[in-house]
Amino acid sequence: MEFEEVIKNRKSIRKFKDNGISDELIYKLIELANLSPSAGNLQARSVIIVKNEEIKKEIAKICYEQDFISKAPVVFVVFANLDESAERYGERGKNLYALQDATIFTSYLQLIATNYGLSSCWVGAFDENALKKLFNIKENLKPIAVLPIGYSAEEKKRPPRKSIKELIIREI
Fold first, then answer.
1. Does residue 172 fall inside a structural domain?
2. Which secondary-structure segment (H or E) carries 80?
3. Cα-flanking dihedrals φ and ψ of residue 47, to 5°?
């Protein structure tokens, strides 16, 4: 797919086909997303790959009963590594750069999935402490996104976007 087509085809999808995703493709998505930029090339992000049905149901509950999450063949949970970034950049690394590293990684993951004919929905609504407890995650890792990925089972139009004029504050 051409890059512009990937951008235009990415939509938030909440209905997935039962088709599984091969481990080879899952690792390809991670491998390519890992090429995303990061502050100081620290790559202060981590991911958990979830295929287990019961764990996906728990994640859906933790995401305030968003049941569609449990129907995806695979769910990625992306974390920012706060301490890793703070070691080099102090508070700004902990409070900004690590979060940016994880969000950029997640954005790449979505676009790469789209390129391979997969669909996703970025979920940011979750109980952070419950998610960390589910995976027995250390304090230095902050959950940033839950990303269910699969083959779309719905046709969906892109919702309207702000006009360019609304987006630009000013040109100088």
1. no
2. strand 74-81
3. -140, 145
